[in-house]
Each structure stands twice: as C-alpha cells, then as structure tokens.
Amino acid sequence: MGDGRSAAFRLAVGAATFAALALLWYGATSITHAIPPVYFPTPAEVARALQQITIRGYADGKLHEHFFHSSLLVLMGFAAAVAIGVPLGMLMGWSRRAEALINPVFLLLRPIPPLAWIPLAIVWLGLGDAAKVLVIWFAAFVPAVINSYAGVRSIEPHLIEAARSLGIGRRMLVLEVLFPGSLPLVFTGLRLSLQACWTTLVAGELIGAIVGLGHVLYQAGLDIFPAMIVVGMTGVAVAGGLTTLALGWLELRAMPWRTR
Q: Which end of the chain is more exposed for a tag (fewer CB within 10 A), N or C?
C-alpha cells in the first residue's frame, strides 16, 4: 500500500513539474515574447512541426520511421555490448589472469571517445547502418565492462569462501553467487550504456544518415527550423525514456528481491 502511494505521489509531482514547465514555455514564447521565436519556438509552432513530420514527413521519412530506425540501431548496438561487455567484465573481475591479459588493452581503448571511432567505422563499413552500430557498440561496451568488473569485485569474499566450503562447483558458483551478486552494479552500467548509446547515435546520424532522429536534427539545423529541432529532441527523449523503462522492468524481473 505504501509503495502504491509513493508511486502515485511521484507520478503526481512529475506531472505537476511538466505542467509548470509547459506553462513557463507558453508564457515566455507566446505571451510575453521574452524568448524570440528565432531562438526557441512556441508550442503552436512545435505542434505544427509535429503534424508535418507525422503526416507529410520530413528529412526523407515520417516520424514513426525515424523513431523506429533509431531505436533499432540503439538496440542492436546495446545488445552486442551487453553480450560481450558483461561477460568480459565479470571474467576480468573473477580471474586475475584474465585481468592481467585483457586490462592493458582495455585501458588503452577506454579513454578514446566513441565519436572518435566514427571516421574509422566509415572507412571499415561505409556510411550505412553497420558503421553506426559499431560506434554505438563501443559507447555501450566500456560502461558495461567497467561496472560488471566492479560488480564481481564488490561481492564479499566470505560469501565465495562459504560457497566453496559447501562444495559448490565452478559453474554453480558463477550462476548462484557471482552473477546474482554482481547484478546491481551490472544494471547500473547498463543504464549508463543505454544513455551513451542514444548520445552516440544522434551524433552518428548527423553524418551520412538517410533516416533517423539524428538525421531530423541535422536537416532541421540546416533548414534553420527550431520547431522541428525541438520535435527531434523530444523524439530522442521519448525513445530514450521508453528504452530506460524497459531496462528498469527487466531489472526488477532479474532482481525480484530488490524494491524501489
């Protein structure tokens, strides 16, 4: 009962915050004109831009086409990063030999910004979606590895010793102790990875994209179309929020013992 009331309270506060921001936006742009339209559009202009991209299309596609294309690229890069980064980070956290072998290379690659890989990805894979997925993968890979490594290292040594004293084999030790014990930090890393995916995707789609939310932002910038820029930014925010909610749902299913 308490959790339900707390969730309802947070929802009410969030709705009130959005309503206050909307009123402030309307007042500053449509009533007082404190912010000129050339710098930031009015709600009516954004509504017209949303109608345009939804019905007639903009930047070589309609809103749902841009939305789903960008979401698909993010999910592909994110899934690849999870599939490779989480096991690799856990392996480095568990095995000193693996850490000694892999960590020097990882420390060399870690400081390189994901966007710095764009030119090389284009050389390797061209201007298509594969190059963007590669850059997104790298952006998500680093946080996934770091937090998976930290998750394994955060497990109390006496828990591992107790499991070994009970005669648990290596496979069961990984499945029953290491994996569940590291999940909180693993999911923290996945949240950071997902955020990095969207940041990198938008930057990647500014170059050589045919469709996508980043392409909408790029084209709207060329056209000096502030209302469409806001629509594109809102599309990224909504897509990012939905994927974050999906990840949160998965986190609750993976760790039912934790409550919010």
A: N
CB 59 within 8 A of CB 213: no
Q: Which pair of tokens denotes residue 185?
A: 């930090």
- Identify the pLDDT of residue 1: 46
Q: 50 φ, ψ to 5°?
A: -65, -40
Please say if the pLDDT value at position 258 is more than 70: no
- Residue 121's domain comprises 57-254
Single out the residue of 60, 113, 67, 70 nearest to residue 205, CA to CA: 70
Query: Is residue 13 in a domain?
Result: no
Residue range 175-220, pLDDT digits in tens: 777 788 888 899 999 999 999 999 898 888 876 778 899 899 989 9
Cα dihedral across residues 251, 84, 92, 149: positive or negative? negative
**Within a domain: 243:** yes
Beta carbons of 88 and 99 less than 8 angstroms apart: no
- Half-sphere exposure (CA, 13 Å, Cβ side) for 14? 6
CATH number, domain at 71? 1.10.3720.10
Q: Considering the domain boundaries, does residue 15 fall inside one?
A: no
Which phi and psi (to 5°) does residue 24 adopt?
-65, -40
Give the count of domains, the chain.
Answer: 1
Residue 235: inside a domain, yes or no?
yes
pLDDT band, residue 46 (cuts 50/70/90): very high
CA 172/CA 166 separation, integer angstroms = 11
